[in-house]
């Protein structure tokens, strides 16, 4: 085991800092009695979004009131934690926004196809998150 990372339980109403433990994949330390006992003591399962991890040197990201536990990581695990905690680049974010635009660009046609397939408008609103007035407008077109 190489570096100590910091496992912590994110307090309620805090911005999501670090990486969710589930986002970094399996870590050997999670199977230890110490980590299992620590999670149990805090009533938080390992798969909870509130269970976060930061690599060594990033302790400043952990809220002062968060319950924390140093955990050892292998070199490979350290790389995965660092990658999961790294900020997304502007290019990645723009690519995601373009993908969203491309997905939503023909939403009217998708609504028309759903209606033709017999899906009621309220269900379309529920499944898509579209504004009910927008779906009604697509019905009128």
Describe the structure.
The chain has six helices and four strands; from the N terminus they run E-E-H-E-E-H-H-H-H-H. It has 141 residues and is an alpha+beta fold. A four-stranded antiparallel beta sheet has the order 2-3-1-4. 44% of the residues lie in helices and 14% in strands. The N and C termini lie far apart (63 Å). The protein is elongated, with a radius of gyration of 22 Å. It has two domains: 3-85, no CATH class; 90-140, no CATH class.
Helix content: 40-55%
Mean pLDDT: 87
Kindly name the structural category. Answer: alpha+beta
- Give the N-terminus to C-terminus distance in angstroms: 63 Å
SS field, number of helical segments: 6
Count the domains. Answer: 2
Give the strand content: 5-15%
Please give the order of strands in the largest beta sheet: 2-3-1-4
Q: Gist?
A:
44% of the residues lie in helices and 14% in strands. The chain has 141 residues and is an alpha+beta fold.
Reconstruct the topology from this structure.
Layout: E1 3-9, E2 19-20, H1 33-41, E3 51-54, E4 67-73, H2 75-85, H3 90-104, H4 107-116, H5 121-128, H6 132-140
Antiparallel strand pairs: 1-3, 1-4, 2-3
Helix pairs in contact: 5-6
């Amino acid at each position: 085991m190489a570096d100590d990372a910091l496992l912590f339980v994110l307090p309620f109403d805090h911005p999501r800092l670090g990486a969710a433990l589930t986002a970094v994949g399996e870590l050997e330390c999670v199977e230890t009695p110490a980590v299992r006992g620590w999670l149990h003591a805090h009533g938080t399962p390992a798969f909870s979004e509130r269970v976060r991890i930061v690599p060594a040197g990033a302790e400043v990201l952990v809220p002062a009131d968060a319950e924390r536990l140093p955990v050892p990581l292998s070199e490979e695990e350290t790389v995965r934690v660092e990658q999961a905690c790294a900020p997304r680049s502007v290019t990645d974010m723009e690519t995601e926004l373009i993908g969203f635009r491309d997905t939503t660009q023909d939403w009217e046609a998708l609504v028309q196809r759903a209606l033709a397939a017999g899906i009621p408008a309220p269900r379309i609103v529920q499944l898509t998150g579209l504004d009910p007035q927008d779906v009604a407008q697509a019905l009128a077109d």
